[in-house]
Design goal:
alpha/beta; Rossmann fold; 2 domains; four-stranded parallel beta sheet; 10 strands; binds D-glutamic acid
């Protein structure tokens, strides 16, 4: 098989990365994807650096063992904490979501003389300052304010996208953000695009929301073209989300993953398997 016709690997701590999968799928209809959701060990957003690095490396090595041409780290927490370690360990291109999300926020606030950029994310992503640094690399002057919104993760998974409780939690989490009055707000966690409407209404219609998954899909497209890695075999017929060209793996609770996937994407993976990612070295010979 030619290298460029291999699938793109995506991993997340669980189901949230499906928002990044959807963005990639929409933008790159000729590509195939292998998705790994580490549902046995989710959440990552409350865990320490060493633990997230270890999980991220195990997930990456599992995906590499399945045969992929590029790795997308869909999980913001893993992107924030573990990207350098992953890059050290695996020999293919690795794209995280933080750089693209940060760069997009700078790009869309370019017209503002004193751009203010807000970031909402998990506790671990916020305390890593990874978004702050990504924004700083793209703009020396943008002012950045970050807020952790941990309860958004279970609310999105429950499908509470319109409930009054979700609006009141959003109002509480985002009150300082509103005072900061950002021009752009980065949705720095896989689950937050599911709560996009609540977040938009809470911060105000004039704030531009940045979906890091969409920004990442744009950069993946550019990278595939630059490196000559775009799939040379166009998919015939209409590509559907979760059709059998894409393969989904979870480390636990496949049924729940399928149910939440349906909530997030309106459809369930047709190929979904529960696996273990520990000791993946043994798998390498069996590919
Ligand atoms: N996927 C995680 C992220 O984007 C959110 C869920 C978790 O805490 O693991 O940061």
């Amino acid at each position: 098989m030619v290298f460029s016709s291999l699938p793109i690997g995506i991993f997340d701590s669980g189901v949230g990365g499906l928002t990044v999968y959807r963005a990639l799928h929409d933008r790159l209809p000729n590509e195939h994807f292998i998705y790994l959701g580490d549902t046995a060990r989710v959440p990552y957003g409350t865990k320490s650096l060493g633990t997230v690095e270890r999980y991220a490396i195990e997930n990456s090595e599992f995906l590499v063992s399945r045969g992929i041409k590029m790795l997308v780290v869909a999980c913001n927490t893993a992107s924030a904490l573990a990207l350098p370690k992953i890059r050290e360990r695996i020999g293919i291109d690795v794209v995280g979501v933080i750089g693209p999300g940060g760069r997009k926020a700078v790009e869309i606030t370019k017209g503002e003389p004193h751009a203010r950029i807000g970031v909402i994310a998990t506790e671990a992503t916020v305390s890593s300052n990874a978004y702050f640094e990504a924004i700083r690399r793209a703009s020396a002057s943008a002012e950045v304010f970050q807020a952790g919104c941990p309860l958004f993760v279970p609310l999105a998974e429950e499908g509470w996208t319109e409930e009054p409780e979700t609006y009141s939690i959003a109002a509480k989490y985002l009150s300082k953000m509103k005072e900061f009055s950002p021009h752009a707000l980065v949705l720095g966690c896989t689950h937050y695009p599911i709560l996009r409407d609540v977040i938009q209404q809470t911060v105000g219609e004039n704030v531009k929301l940045v979906d890091s998954g969409e920004a990442t899909a744009e950069e993946v497209e550019t990278l595939l073209n630059e490196k000559g890695l775009a799939n040379p075999n166009a998919n015939t017929g209409k590509r559907q989300l979760c059709d059998d060209l894409d393969h989904f793996y979870v480390t636990d609770a496949a049924d729940r993953f399928g149910r939440v996937a349906e909530r997030f994407l309106g459809t369930k993976p047709s190929k979904l398997e529960a696996i273990e990612v520990y000791g993946v070295d043994e798998l390498k010979g069996k590919k």
